[in-house]
């Protein structure tokens, strides 16, 4: 994150809570299937989510009958999650994970969707390792945004990069990120070697939905109003020339790893 204030940057998402809930993409159901299998989840499993936002990923577990404890630093995002899932077995706590008083609780699964890179390290890995029961799993997953080779994709990526609001990545850059994450988990001293699963998928956006997606990104939120307007006009024109739609391609990547605290260790 360069010279930017990472703490301030991480707090900006709360400013766009409603947009975040409506326009952030979800995650493939096959990914949840894999977590269920690897973590041997049951309806009685204790599950913690880090950086829950408005409950986008939470929903995928709640609709399968699991009970969640969700940690989310943004008060507006947390309240949105509470209201949206008020009929489900979930509790939202407004706190940063590293500041949260866990009161000695233990969990069968800790997961984080699109958020764990905002947790300071090595404190985050250490705390997760301590909170997991013997044999417990940490599951981290991200939608990595794949840069395609078409002219429209390159022009969109260029516009977003110029304003520093969003970056699409080539496959080799995504794989470098995967390798770094595997090395961090393995080298933390708190976990075994992680398993990595990849789920390619895509979605289609019109100009309005893509720009509203950008409104959930901390870079766009930090722009001056005139810059937001100029970029929005530019993107409307680009997507309009492409028939009014933009295909976005993702490689949703799951890292799941067992804590090094089992009786066999």
Automatic annotation (TrEMBL):
Residues of the Methyltransferase type domain: 48-139
UniProt-recorded Gene Ontology molecular function terms: S-adenosylmethionine-dependent methyltransferase activity
GO terms (BP aspect): methylation
Alphabetically ordered keywords of this record: Methyltransferase, Transferase
Pfam families, sorted: Methyltransf_11
InterPro entries: Diverse_substrate_MTase, Methyltransf_11, SAM-dependent_MTases_sf
Keyword Methyltransferase annotated: yes
Family as reported in the entry's similarity comment: Belongs to the methyltransferase superfamily.
Protein name listed in UniProt: Methyltransferase type 11 domain-containing protein
Organism encoding this protein: Paenibacillus borealis
Lineage: Bacteria, Bacillati, Bacillota, Bacilli, Bacillales
